[in-house]
Amino acid sequence: MSDLDQFRQETRTWLEENCPPTMRTPMRSEKDATWGGRNPEYAHPDQKLWLDRMAERGWTVPDWPTQYGGGGLTPGETKILREELARIRARNPLNSFGISMLGPALLKYATEEQKLEHLPKIARGEIRWCQGYSEPNAGSDLAGLQTSAEDAGDHFIVNGQKVWTSYADKADWIFCLVRTDKSSKQGGISFVLFDMASEGVSIKPILLISGNSPFCETFFDNVKVPKANLVGELNKGWDVAKYLLGHEREMISGMGLGAGSDPLLDAARKGADPLLRAQIALFQVRSQAFKAMSERFIDELKAGHAHPAQPSMMKYYGTELNKTRHELLMAAGGSDALEWESERSHGGAAARTWLRTKANSIEGGTSEIQLNIIAKRILDLPS
Amino acid sequence: MSDLDQFRQETRTWLEENCPPTMRTPMRSEKDATWGGRNPEYAHPDQKLWLDRMAERGWTVPDWPTQYGGGGLTPGETKILREELARIRARNPLNSFGISMLGPALLKYATEEQKLEHLPKIARGEIRWCQGYSEPNAGSDLAGLQTSAEDAGDHFIVNGQKVWTSYADKADWIFCLVRTDKSSKQGGISFVLFDMASEGVSIKPILLISGNSPFCETFFDNVKVPKANLVGELNKGWDVAKYLLGHEREMISGMGLGAGSDPLLDAARKGADPLLRAQIALFQVRSQAFKAMSERFIDELKAGHAHPAQPSMMKYYGTELNKTRHELLMAAGGSDALEWESERSHGGAAARTWLRTKANSIEGGTSEIQLNIIAKRILDLPS
Amino acid sequence: MPLYHTDDQSLLRDTARDFVAEHAPVSHLRSLRDANDTTGFSRDLWREFATLGFTGILIPEAQGGLGLGHVEAGIVLEEIGRNLSPSPFLTTAIAAVEALKGTAQADRWFPGILAGKAVAALAIDEGRKHNARITLKAERAGNGYRLTGSKQFVHHGHAADLLLVAAQTDAGTALFAVPASATGLTADPERLADSSIAARLTFDGVQVDADAVIGEGDAALTRLLAAARTGASAELVGVGGATLDMTIGYLKQRKQFGAVIGSFQALQHRAAHLYSELEVARAAVLKAQQLLDTGENAAQAVALAKAMTGLATTLAVQEGIQMHGGIGMTDEYDLGFYMKRARVLAELFGDTNFHADALAQAAGY
Amino acid sequence: MPLYHTDDQSLLRDTARDFVAEHAPVSHLRSLRDANDTTGFSRDLWREFATLGFTGILIPEAQGGLGLGHVEAGIVLEEIGRNLSPSPFLTTAIAAVEALKGTAQADRWFPGILAGKAVAALAIDEGRKHNARITLKAERAGNGYRLTGSKQFVHHGHAADLLLVAAQTDAGTALFAVPASATGLTADPERLADSSIAARLTFDGVQVDADAVIGEGDAALTRLLAAARTGASAELVGVGGATLDMTIGYLKQRKQFGAVIGSFQALQHRAAHLYSELEVARAAVLKAQQLLDTGENAAQAVALAKAMTGLATTLAVQEGIQMHGGIGMTDEYDLGFYMKRARVLAELFGDTNFHADALAQAAGY
């Protein structure tokens, strides 16, 4: 038996013993997701159990080095672990922007002290992070950002405002782009980390058209940020941000991939009019082909073959697919799917999710921005 | 009985008596079209008969004034004539760029002498015209045109090259944009007419992907053009050209409207797979709605309500529809429609027409140019 | 008849536009929603519609109405669409009036409608998708009928005075005018995504007189649906048009990368394409309205109008949200309301696919 | 297996790319067409394919081939697609070899294929659209069968040595290996839009031995079609990829309005979208090839590959022509050839709609 076969066997056995049966059932709503943090919310106590057991082995972040709380697995082992988790339909033990976005950037750009300080807490779900990029006048155009960080000796004084901060009202720390030099545009931006409990931070959730408030406006009024919390070089935060945006894009593009049983196919099987059936059938061609593309992309990424701008393609295609998927689901659902509050409709789940997906192609860099990037960086078209 | 009712009755009677039965059958190919000119080609002698009878009454151009060879009909009468022609499925007595493009421009910009000289010959199909706009380096961007007309006293000396000249090899005269001032871009262009039999004119048909050659390259080598043939003011040819392009766009957009029995519906009735049927059904929604739009556009045009840039919308939408129509026809035709030379396929009619339609959204101003015009002139979006 | 509005119709449009924009702008819908209003519309506004004569727009002059047609009704509906005004106008003044016209029930209901008091609702759908299958049973009983079955997606069904109910009798389809007060009828109001309220209705042996039948066979239902669908199409044109205007306005004002985003060619081309789709849809709607008014066979033109407006306005709200970016996603901004209303209207009385399929069947494929 | 080419496969791609671009570029197709060649491909080129081992790419090493798989075959096919090289490679070295492999007929035909002499053609379609209905009749007669019926869209059908024929026996579908020399078989060659030649075949009581049956039931035909469809998909990826490259090249060079047109954002976005579709299609094809090679159930991946490449490459040629403007419409320029070939390949062995429908049926709707 090869080492990998043995690893698979051991992993399977361990998961059988340690993944609670409740954590192998589909999530009913967003509330079933585990986000950790200082004030964690668990809809079921097994969520905590499952998180702790996985974190214990470093398997919330299987491919991170063990000294930072990771599992130290090879790419091959990591893939097997993911396959085995998928096999038993295990829920994600920990949803975390720390894992999906900040972690990779810290691994690349942070000092050893910063890594040891932050990564293990991310891995164990002890600190929940949010991202401070967008500002009222800097949406697609991040270079226009104005939140300032003034040098005050051993710390910065941060003033300004962010918008579209995902779950800022639930986050413990923020990774944040601030302007440290007003004379240049992209050159004068730095990447800093700070505690959301710092004096001068205030938060206002934004009510969305879906009726939910996953995003906030976040205000900074003379917030003190130790210089030790600067990641990467001063005025070079743009590099960190770009690197990290690549990871955000990958994550969002994953939404094009329906996991487990597919509600759209279920709807089609229940009977759709012939034109809707045709639309679903053609949608499925793109959707399934994108699944293959995602496999390919991950494989190429691991092998270092992927074009550095390929995440933009994935983000563009995946989010557009997801929007189409929910348009089709609404068409299949008819007037049932239009109910907004009834129990029958699970509080308007279909319609609210449909509306939520409209942001997919806006957040994390709009589709237009991704197309610009593809045109310029992959196709080499001129400005 | 109202005057119009009476006109309808008289028209109906006259058409019954004068439109030969052969001219009420569908055209089998492009060869059945009547173009007139110095060396007219008639696939059937009735074509000439039908042309002469209609020209006699001025009904090849029913709404032109009688002194220029027109019928002098009111808009209401013109509409009735067209309806009665459609009722008996009469063929067009005369296809002519002189009627559809040059005529309206002459009516608006030409001197009385020019009108009396050219319009009656157009109306009677005695002179066949072609259009000299595009040049190798001035496709969408007409302002970049280089064919020069130098002042030589009572005439110009024209030198240069045109491309995409429709049927230049069959035309008797050309209406042509030439540069009369190199110092300004759009300001230095003039609109002139000249005989294609003039010394120094040579023509090379362009073989297209459809296997046909409806377009030519046209070369001018010191061609003498009398100054009396200048239409409109010197250096103001751009105004004439724009006015005329509007008419060209209308004509091309008409292609979105399938006349008579619809081959696409026939194909669908013969049986299409469920997805193709769905595509045809959705196409038909746009296609039929565009029919309504065409009615509306013509009505608004007549009433002077139409936005001056609306022809761009019509051209854009109609040509894109026509391309889609032929994609669907090819899908319906399957491998039968791919045959290129066989008798069974009428010499590859389906495939050749399909390929021909690809030029619809290029000639007469590309779709991109039309969208630019709509965005700027109708939606008032900034440059 | 030329395919544009006459001078009189343009005048009506100006009146309607001013009135609706002043009395029932989007903020009106928003305030009803935020107050968790359970009627779904303002009865005061409905009376004001009556004062202007709008509620009698299709009612013959001899019966006290304006005696106008579907073109004029559509002009009012387009403004309702532009402002997302919650109103029983479509179900009551258009569909119900069209169905009641010339029947014995007209005398009973027209006065209330003319006064802006009576409200009608349309009980047609029985499943999540609109279709031609009617299973609600109307059995002969006493000197009338007993109705048993259920309906859904009935706008104003809980607040209406009159329900127009499609039912199945021994002889085939029939359309019934049922007073909301009838015994055995329960209405279960549900708020929809667009803040409108539609009811699920249960008919538990609802007894009605014989004269409740306002039409037998498909004809009456077809006439009602033609009016309702054409009306919904006009409203969709309003929703789409306002969305386009709002979006173009934003494109001219929002700056990114040092330029107004409306100067970016990719957005310009998409906006121009959207404009084209909406213009084409508008023409299809006017065509259907005119044919209804001249009494010609309008069936295909109506299906076409509903199918095409569904396509065009859906594109409008999708492009509107995307071009606005984040701000369009906020509840505070009005655009989301347009997206929600567009979705409901697109579904109402058959969506694009339903009508495109119907057209295909009518064309013999 | 990771979803990208191994180093060996990349090496093969370089070899194939250089060879095909040098020996069979578009000018090769053009010259065959202009000479009104009646074979449809160059037999010399076919022998050169053999010299490189390409004709034996799927033939097991034990039988003298390279013993490679569909990934490798697809690499060669993509280059054929990029250059529009007329070749019996797909029908012979891929589909026929896959169908003959392991049958008694392999020994008879493989040597000729390895030598670049034998050419095979696939006689499947009976109507204008590819579908699962086979009506060509194979009746028991003597110690074999008698075939009666007709086929169409048979590439190389008039020039082939071997025909693989799908037929209906008493027991169900069967696949026959029929020598082209068989009595009663007539081939009517037709030039298609892309200058390829496909035959209409008539089987007028064609007598074959019992060992002409190379597979009974659907399995053999399914295997042949899976190979053929995956191959056509790979070729489509090549056609689409070359079209994109040509178009991007043109966008960088053509000037209008004082700027390179590739700097216009609307065109950039469309080009970027097209790139995305082609990348996704490429992934779907590689997935199907790998599954065929590992012997897993590839049916859905194959249908997906053919459906997706049909979409992506059709978009590529449409956008390619439009972005080129007039020059793309000229016969002198190569782009039109790509549009024509894309259309033929999209139709071959089932178009996007056919396969999307099949996938829907397989998914239970």
Automatic annotation (TrEMBL), chains A, B:
- The organism's place on the tree of life at top rank: Bacteria
GO annotation, cellular component aspect: plasma membrane
Species of provenance: Sphingomonas xinjiangensis
Q: Where is this region: Disordered?
A: 1-39
Q: Where is the composition biased (Basic and acidic residues)?
A: 1-15
Q: Which keywords does this Swiss-Prot/TrEMBL entry list?
A: FAD, Flavoprotein, Oxidoreductase
Q: Which GO terms describe its molecular function?
A: flavin adenine dinucleotide binding; oxidoreductase activity, acting on the CH-CH group of donors
Query: What name does UniProt use for this protein?
Result: Alkylation response protein AidB-like acyl-CoA dehydrogenase
UniProtKB/TrEMBL annotation, chains C, D:
What InterPro entries does the database record attribute to this sequence? Answer: Acyl-CoA_Oxase/DH_mid-dom_sf, AcylCo_DH-like_C, AcylCo_DH/oxidase_C, AcylCoA_DH/ox_N, AcylCoA_DH/ox_N_sf, AcylCoA_DH/oxidase_NM_dom_sf
For this chain, one GO molecular function annotation is: acyl-CoA dehydrogenase activity
Looking up Gene3D superfamilies in the UniProt record yields: Acyl-CoA dehydrogenase/oxidase, N-terminal domain, Butyryl-CoA Dehydrogenase, subunit A, domain 2, Butyryl-CoA Dehydrogenase, subunit A, domain 3
Q: Where is the Acyl-CoA dehydrogenase/oxidase N-terminal domain?
A: 6-117
Cofactors that this protein relies on = FAD
Domain Acyl-CoA dehydrogenase/oxidase C-terminal: residue ranges = 217-362
Q: Which UniProt keywords apply?
A: FAD, Flavoprotein, Oxidoreductase
Q: How is this protein named in the record?
A: Alkylation response protein AidB-like acyl-CoA dehydrogenase
